[in-house]
Design goal:
The structure is a homotetramer of 205-residue chains. The first copy, chain A, is mainly α. In chain A, 75% of the residues lie in helices and 0% in strands. Chain A has one domain (4-192). Chain A has helices spanning 4-20, 33-66, 73-98, 103-129, 134-141, 146-163, 165-180, 184-191.
Chain lengths: 205, 205, 205, 205
């Protein structure tokens, strides 16, 4: 099965999740900068953090599917699983922001990030182990990758949230930095003419 | 008429329907896990159920249009009919969740699922009976299919809701399981080189 | 300039406009069918009417751009003008529904439909008169078309709303019927191999 | 890396941002035209202004990526940076509208436009200086462009807002006019057969 609709649907869900968070920003009643800061300060920081996380997931999703030409049914479900946790992120972001980064909401936010990270890792594994789709992926990326480091970071963040929620925010921000450093492996792999996608016979794709 | 825009528009509507349900999850006032469960417990389960249903419809829609190369005006309207009932699902989900799965809302939710199922079956029939678009579909899938079993399941669920709403939720969950078992017929059909789509002459497509 | 992104962006805006109307449907407090009808009865009918109108516009937009291969800057703006009036439709639908189809809101709703109709006619004219994009469109459709009949219908509806709002709803529903009768001209034109799009040289498209 | 998903994701975010602003228009309680004007008058003008701005950005984004065939990771992030500021526009528009164009909200709105303009300019620079993607862009557009004039206009608008907010609105409206005058350079460049995109080898694109 071709991947174009899977990509279009995922782009749609991620674009909505990243944009509707702004609907939760409440405009202050007083027309002053002070009132703006009081009303949105912390909330805005949480919004930026989640925007960057969803941006990272879109980016990684985009990279991942560059290497995949056909998908089976299990990849469709692994992808929906990922979209589920990412579509919850506006909710957990909002709760954390409204409570001004209280303990329980920050733990829940971290668990949401953790589950999204786990879903992405599951998606990678489903692709890697798939009979047809995994070939180019295995060649390009191999086994060890940043997803596990990122998962460990989110786990650390959840732990930190039980002690000091603000510390957890710092840990989550650090996890985003891991992803801002580009992974050149996929780009290098694709730049090599030997790694061209199989010719499109117009049959199954 | 080519199918790419029909697919893109449907992807858009389904992506929005699946994502806006999260806007209805209300954040609790108290920053405790207990308050989160009180505020979102049942609602969250309803959200998961509807997320899976819309995911299934997207999945089935995707499979269905793999076999269709050109569509006539009646397919466009049969598709809009399906999107109409699916775009109502966030509303009926929300009512059922807010009333903590009361009788009437659960019946309405079941009727919504039933009408969406009926609309999907109508779409399949419109494609199967179409002069041009049905050929490959008839070869691959034939007449009997899971849509009718799923319709019967939703009907059973509506009946169960009149007795015990929670039982209905169980029935609806069982209906999703029917669809999680993949239908290999379309994938097998497409894998056979003899079933290639007709060569694209660049004229009508 | 190629049309694929214009189509994708328009699909996005129309998919959102058609889906967010459901956010305005308020769930009733009592879990009874009676309460559901009291809370959403009229509103639901207004929702169906607007859903069908946006569906018609998507359908017509889809047909129109089948005949267009390249667009100039003025087509982009004529298209945004159309999207502007269609993106307002959830708002005017909502006001009409909330006031249970009162006079002024129904007039405003009719004016919104009228302006959307005018914007679509402007878009058709911009394409027809364009130096490059109009050729195939002129051949296929010629000058007289249903857009003007539809505009006259909406004007009649606005007039009817000043006397009896419910009569206006009847007129608007009649206007949708004009569009449900398919316009076979574009499909027939495209089916003729002589009317193939110009070969794609890969240069400007 | 190919640009199709970057374009699809950007189209999604822009389509949502341009459409959700209408969710902030509040329907008046009284069913009269007078009440409509009281409730939405100023807000509607702010809505139109932001609709035009997002339309302009979509238009410019569309033009820009016509000249780009492959992008690197830094372009993806420069693009997300632009989408971030544009996704905030519904919020700042809303605050300015609710406060009936008070001083501080108008300054914040202007700063939002300024930051979006800066992000677009950064995106242009990232593309122009990129090792592979910039070649055709540099040939077609060169260095001087309207982005800087637009940035200066927004800066002037922010300054004007500190004196008289309505004057600032006039300045922002004038900035939109700069963009409504089409930039023929890209269209002319693409019309010349010598500037065809490099043949698609099916390898890296």
């Amino acid at each position: 099965m071709r991947t174009n609709r899977l990509e279009a649907f995922s782009d749609g869900v991620l674009a909505i999740a990243i944009t509707i968070m702004v609907l939760e920003l409440r405009t202050p009643e007083d027309p002053t900068l002070r009132a703006l800061w009081d009303a949105t300060g912390i909330r805005f920081l949480a919004y930026v953090l989640s925007f960057v996380f969803i941006g990272i997931y879109w980016n990684n999703h985009h990279h991942l599917f560059q290497l995949v030409d056909r998908v089976s049914g299990s990849v469709l479900w692994a992808n929906l699983h990922l979209l589920f946790w990412l579509s919850l992120l506006p909710f957990t972001t909002n709760w954390m922001a409204e409570t001004e980064i209280a303990r329980a909401p920050t733990i829940v936010y971290g668990i949401n990030l953790l589950l999204a990270g786990f879903a992405f890792w599951t998606l990678e594994m489903t692709i890697e182990r798939g009979p047809t789709e995994g070939t180019r992926y295995r060649d390009a990326v191999g086994t060890g990758n940043k997803s596990l480091v990122s998962l460990a970071g989110c786990l650390l963040g959840v732990g930190a949230a039980t002690i000091a929620p603000l510390l957890a925010i710092g840990v989550f921000a650090a996890v985003t930095l891991i992803w801002l450093i580009p992974d050149r492996r996929i780009e290098r792999y694709l730049a090599d003419p030997h790694n061209a996608p199989p010719p499109d016979t117009g049959v199954t794709k």
